[in-house]
Structure formats: structure tokens, C-alpha cells
Amino acid sequence: MRKTILFVLALIFSISLSFGQNWDWGGPIDPLQAKFKVLHYQLELEVIPVTKSIRGKNIITFEASEKLDTLRLNLIDEYKVEKVIMNGQELAFSTHDDLLDILPIDCTCNTVEVFYGGATPVALNPPWSGGFTWELDRFDNHWMGLSSQGEGAKIFMPALDHPSSEAQNGVDLYITVDKPYFVAANGRLLGKKETENQITYHWSTNYPINNYGINFTVGVFHEAKIDFNSISGEVIPMHVYVLQEDQAKAEELLEVLKISTGTHEKYFGAFPFPKDKIAVVETPYLGMEHQTINAYGNNFQFVPMGNVQYDWLLHHELGHEWFGNKMSVGDWADMWIHEGFTAYGDWLFYEEHGGPEAYLDQAASVLRTIPHVKPVVSPPNSTEEEAYHGEIYSKGAAVVHGLRGVLGDDIFFPMLKSFVSDDRFTYQNQVTTKNFIDFVQSYTGQDLSDFLNFYLKTTDLPELKVSKKGKSGYMVSLKGIEFTIPVEIETSKGMEKVILGSKPVLIPSSSEIKVDPKGWLMLKR
Length: 525
Fold this sequence. Notes:
By secondary structure, this protein is α+β, with helices and mostly antiparallel strands.
């Protein structure tokens, strides 16, 4: 009995420590880290499910415009750093507060090797509270997933862990596991090296990649694959990796992935990483947008949409290949660009396969749920925890939807595709909310900055006021704004667009009018 009580107390203490973990990232960049830029990571790890641990090294290639007195990386204190090597020499280093401070030697070297290992942090509620997820499949095979959007790469490797830092020349992953396990990771599988009991898989991408987009998943998987014909004219490998117990679902999942990719390509342009692959891997948590290897844990809950099958989770995470992976933000204050545009892409699936009414019904159902409690855009230098909340999805998508209503389809859709294809904001370059607002003005010739800033940076809504004027007229205004918006109004003569603001406008109509009947705008009605 005493042993049982001690075990329970130890378990409670362990749980309380786990729940005390709070690995946030973002905010102002550390001055020491602002002095250098990461070009490439070469991560060489052995994954050990029995002890829920990893061990190996990360080779970081970087560039700096000045001599560094300290090379500061991020790595959680739970790991033990065994040694650090530069130019064949061991370096002095210290670890504290989830930081790894390295004292470089006096040379022109731009590569450092960090050897480390230890028990991994276990995800408490992945992917929202991330870490490693260690499970067993139905056949008692180990099944490991990794999620780190809220925590950053420091929970699995030493890195310059700030959203403004992306490995400009990509990442090489050498992940070693016991046989018969497989590792699904970013990029293309360049090869594998076998020993009697283990396999090392070499995955590689040359595309820029954000820290939380770097990923690897371990399991015994069934693979299904096809070639996808992109609108760019390129033929891209498309793969799904599912547990053996779910192999009967693989072909259907592959078809769902193909349809979702084609839908995204129609509205956002060609798949952004054609030299790699389009892929999803079944994970022991819901999902996450890992570049070219999206996590999928939605249990194959496909629903019919028109003549096709739809999986909201797969479609959403796939949309991040365009917004989040190709187009990334360097300050979490602008995180809505990742989530809002991707969530809007979910609505476009309804339009493409369910028709305009299905799209408008989906928009209306989401608009009704928005609490308007937090601004979509957070203050500059926000951390991930400060910037991440539900309205960056729902209201972010609603802002894009409202912009469509204001501009009309003939302008909006080409503009959307042009935005996500602009070299100034993609791949090695990053984007801000101001970039988007300025782009809208330059593309359309219309200054919608007041409109966009109002909805993105405040929690206010225009208040719709309608009053009868005589026998055949209505006075209409939008109170609480200092700008005007073109709004659809249905009158006895049909639908027309009227410029509305705080000053009442007379709308002639012999029948009761309907202001914004399709629900393009967020209004107090």
C-alpha cells in the first residue's frame, strides 16, 4: 500500500512538472541571435521509443556579418549537450534557461556540430501543447509523432529558434530507427542505410523551411502513392503513409489528398514544393502543417461534398503548404496570415465542390461564432502564445471573405493568387500584415487600408442602421467607422452596390431592402 501511495504521489508530481512546461517562442529576437543567419540544418538522430529518447547531433551552417563572441542557440535544458565541435576542435559552451551558448574559435568557420541527447518532452495535448507523442498501434508497434508549432524546434534540436529564422538552404534529416520501422519526413527520401538491426533514412529538402515545419514521424506504415500532375506542368510524387491496420483506407485517402491539392492549386497557384513531394502521414495526434509531410490524425472522417469526399483536417493542413510554409511570417503578430488565409481556403472547397450556396452557408455559420474578443493582429514582437487564438482562423478568414465581397470575384481571385506567388513575400522572404494591405492597394488601385486595419486590428464592428424614409425610401448608414465600404443592397430594382459610411444614404425602394444579403461583411445588425 505504501509503495502504491508513493507511486501515485510521484506520478502526480511528474504530471505537475509536465504541465508546468511552457516553451513559448517569438517575441523580440535575442540581440546575440540577430547577428547571424541559419543557412542549413543537418540533423542526425537515433530515435529510441523504448526509452522515449533521442540522441545524435545537429550540424548548423550559418553566416554572420561580424565575428561572433557567442553563438547562441536554443535547446531545452532537458537535453544534455555532450560536446560542441567547430573546425575539428571541441568548443567551450554553457547551457541555461533553454539556451546553448557556444564560444566559437577564431576562424572563418561557418559550421558547428552539437552532440546531444536525452528523454524527450512528452506532448500534453498535441498539437496545441506539443512535444513527442509516443503510442503503440494495434499490433503493438511503436508509433511516434512530433508537434512543435507552439514550442519551436528547440524541443527536438539546437536551433536559432525564432519565427524570423528559417533554414534558407533547407534541411537534411538522417533519422535512425530499429527495424522494421519507417521514418516519414520532409523533402524527398534520398536513400537509406541498413545495418543488421537498424535503418537510417536520409530525407532532404533544398527549399527554405520554418522551424516548426521540420518534422519526422516513426511507425510501421503502409504506403500508397501516385504521380500528381500539377497545373505548373510538373509531375510531383504524392504519398500517403498510414498504419498497417488502416491500409484499406490508403487509396481513398490518396484520392482525397489529390482532390484537395487540385482545389488549392486552382485558387492559390501551383503546389509550392514540386522538387520534393505532396504527402501526409498518419500521426497519433490530430494534425499539423509540416512542410511536404503533413500530419494527419483525423481517423479518415471523410464527408461527401458534391461529387467528392472531403476531409476538413487534411484540406486545412495541406493549405498551409501555401500559407505558412511557402509564405511565412517573421513575427507571430502576423500569424493570422498563416491561419486566416488557410481557413479561407477551407471555405473555398465548399464553393468548388458544393457550389456558391454551400460556400455562403459555411461563411455565415463561421461568422456567427466569432466572439470579437481579441484583435486578429497582435502587437509587434508577439510570442506564439500571445498571438495564437481562435479568431486568427475564423475572423482572419472572414476578413478575406469580406475583401472578396468588396472587390468582386474578377479582381479578388487573381489578386489572391498573385499575392501568394509574389517573390517578395515567399520562400526565403517573409511577409507582414502591412505587406498584404499595401499589396491590395497596389494591385487593385483602391486604398482599403482603413477597412482592413479596422477589422484586423480592432474588436469593433460597424453598426448597421436602417430607417424608413417616406413611402419609398430607406436611410442606411454604418455607425462606428470613419471610412466607407461598398455594400450590396437588394432593393425593388434588384441588387446594387452602395458606398456606405457613418453618414446616412438614401436608398430608393418600393419594397423592404436587404443590406448585405449574402453576408459578406461583419456587421452589428
